[in-house]
Amino acid sequence: MRILGLDLGSKTVGVAMSDPLLLTAQGVEIIRREHENKLRRTYARIEELCSENQVDRIVLGYPKNLNNTEGERCEKTREFAEALKRRTGLPVILWDERLTTVAAQKAMIEGGIRREDRKEYVDEIAAVFILQGYLESLRGETDGRA
């Protein structure tokens, strides 16, 4: 059993995967698309990853505002989650992703990744932070605020 973590952006989806023991999250890839509303290949790739890795649920970053309100991005994320549920047959958990991009940027700075290269990896690393937060909540180490 594995869990897939996703960070949905306007032109990319960062992907992370848990280890079989559900202890750690590792970055897998970044799914890129030309247009925000063209998602067919994105869904197909996620389905493929789920099938190949015996994924039993998906954790999708939920982009609430810092003041805990929901904006347009939340609506798009809910629509994406519903489509994923239909296509994969798997449960999709919406997970509060506030500050994960900030944490990903900080981790890359600390890791010495050049500024020009950070944009290339930020979504994948944010997906790792989203999934790791969820995994820790399963062990009672954090609270899930979605």
If you had to describe this structure to a student in words, what would you say it looks like?
The protein is α/β, with parallel strands linked by helices and 146 residues long. The chain has a single domain (2-138), classed as Nucleotidyltransferase, domain 5 (2-Layer Sandwich), CATH 3.30.420. The chain has four helices and five strands. It has helices spanning 40-52, 72-88, 100-110, 115-138; strands at 2-8, 12-18, 25-32, 55-62, 92-96. The protein has a five-stranded mixed β-sheet, with helices on both faces. A hairpin with a 6-residue loop joins β2 and β3. The radius of gyration is 14 Å and the shape is globular. The model has no long low-confidence stretch (mean pLDDT 85).
Task: List strands and helices in order, with pairings.
Layout (H helix, E strand, L loop, with lengths): L1 E7 L3 E7 L6 E8 L7 H13 L2 E8 L9 H17 L3 E5 L3 H11 L4 H24 L8
Parallel strand pairs: 1-4, 4-5
Antiparallel strand pairs: 1-2, 2-3
Helix pairs in contact: 1-2, 3-4
Properties at a glance:
alpha/beta; 24% strand; Nucleotidyltransferase, domain 5; globular; five-stranded mixed β-sheet; 146 residues
Condensed summary:
With 146 residues, the protein is α/β, with parallel strands linked by helices. It is built from four helices and five strands.
